[in-house]
Design goal:
single chain; alpha/beta; Aspartate Aminotransferase, domain 2; Aspartate Aminotransferase, domain 1; four-stranded antiparallel sheet; 15 strands; binds pyridoxal-5'-phosphate; DegT/StrS_aminotransferase; pyridoxal phosphate; PyrdxlP-dep_Trfase_small
């Protein structure tokens, strides 16, 4: 029997990527700018919403770093961040010498909890420091509670940086994720919903901010014939080669989202009959998730003592990758000294949660291997 590795989420090429990359070679646009970069930015803009402006960058992490700079975050400022996320959401706060304030998740979306958020804002203000920005994350493609979070950010006038690295193609009330925040960011790393092999984008509401983002991401060179600099610059622009891959990937994005959603449906069906397992689903029809990763929570007390770690090992035995949910930032050695507001929702999710193989390229044979592991484990 074929026992090749089944990945959690692996690159899935559509077929036209090489055409764009070849064009870049043929025209010698092998640089961090060029027609593919402009083309990819336009594709993204068209896909998200004609009103926004998009800058293609070298990574999602670079986009968060630039985003915080554009929001005026400086050393000594406080920045609020969803605790349950990938460390790349929070690391740029540290690059800037600012202080992260971590917020728990809510049970419905697993994302930033509106109650804990407001409590934190009120308390930080009472201590004399108003948070400079809020980083909210659409984990696994599930939009955070945009309506409630927006009410709070409006009430206190604090801008939100929307980490949409995992949520390209997700939407809330028919508006695409990445376009809700003052700044939005996307990632095209190898295992994301589309990939440029490595890359990211920053999404902004106006042209001036985009120009500033591009300026900073290309070493902040003043408009003089010699190299003159009045700002600290960064080398964060996307290469024209990577952008070529991105243009090809945009042609299959919606199809790949449908395949991810089918994969999610496969698990929803399966776990209907299994006691003690809950799968992350959209709380109501306002939410539309790309279901980048399908994720479950196992309650060992209701599942005959079975734990998520038992299931992870059962998959590993069959050469199938699965992964615990993101370990919350306030539990990480590097971040544990920083303030945290919440009620252990994220901690409990982390203890009992597992991400399942969710690629848009899984074959029927691979789905059967996954199902067999689940059958042996639960039945
Ligand atoms: C992947 C990811 C990032 C970082 O994106 P890169 O392109 O890998 O730098 C940031 N936030 C979240 C939630 C992510 O999943």
């Amino acid at each position: 029997m074929n026992n090749s590795k089944i990945w959690l989420s692996s690159p899935h090429m559509g077929g036209t990527e090489e055409k764009y990359v070849k064009e870049a070679f043929d025209t010698n646009w092998v640089a961090p700018l060029g027609p593919n970069v402009n083309g990819f930015e336009n594709d993204l803009k068209e896909y998200l919403n004609e009103e926004v402006h998009v800058g293609a960058l070298s990574s999602g992490t670079a986009a968060i770093h630039l985003g915080l700079i554009l929001l005026g975050v400086q050393a000594g400022d406080e920045v609020i961040c969803q605790s349950m996320t990938f460390s790349a959401s929070a690391n740029p706060i540290m690059y800037l010498g600012a202080t992260p304030i971590f917020i728990d998740s809510e049970p419905d979306t697993w994302n930033i909890c509106p109650n804990a958020l407001e409590k934190a804002i009120v308390e930080r203000i009472s201590k004399g420091k108003k948070p400079k920005a809020i980083i909210g994350v659409h984990l696994y493609g599930m939009p955070y509670n945009i309506e409630e979070i927006n009410k709070i950010t409006n009430k206190y006038s604090i801008p939100i940086l929307e980490d949409s690295a995992e949520a390209l193609g997700s939407s809330y009330k028919n508006q695409k994720c990445g376009t809700f925040g003052e700044i939005g960011i996307l990632s095209f790393n190898g295992n994301k919903i589309i990939t440029t092999s490595g890359g990211g984008a920053i999404v902004m509401k106006n042209k001036e901010v985009k120009d500033q983002a591009v300026f900073l991401s290309t070493q902040a060179r003043d408009n003089t014939p010699h190299y003159q600099h009045s700002h600290v610059g960064y080398n964060y622009r996307m290469s024209n080669i990577c952008a070529g891959i991105g243009r090809g990937q945009m042609e299959v994005l919606d199809e790949h989202i449908q395949l991810r959603r089918n994969m999610h449906e496969f698990y929803v069906d399966y776990f209907k009959e299994i006691e003690g397992v809950n799968i992350l689903i959209e709380p109501n029809s306002d939410y539309f998730s790309n279901h980048w990763l399908s994720a479950i929570v196992i309650d060992p007390q209701k599942a005959n003592g079975k734990t998520r770690e038992d299931l992870r090992l059962a998959f590993e035995n069959e050469n199938i990758e699965s992964r615990p949910l993101w370990k919350p930032m306030h539990l990480q050695p590097i971040f544990q000294e920083f303030p945290y507001y919440g009620n252990k929702v994220a901690e409990t999710l982390f203890e009992n949660g597992l991400c399942l193989p969710s690629g848009s390229n899984l074959t029927d044979e691979e789905k059967n291997r996954i199902k067999e592991v689940l059958n042996n484990f639960f039945k």
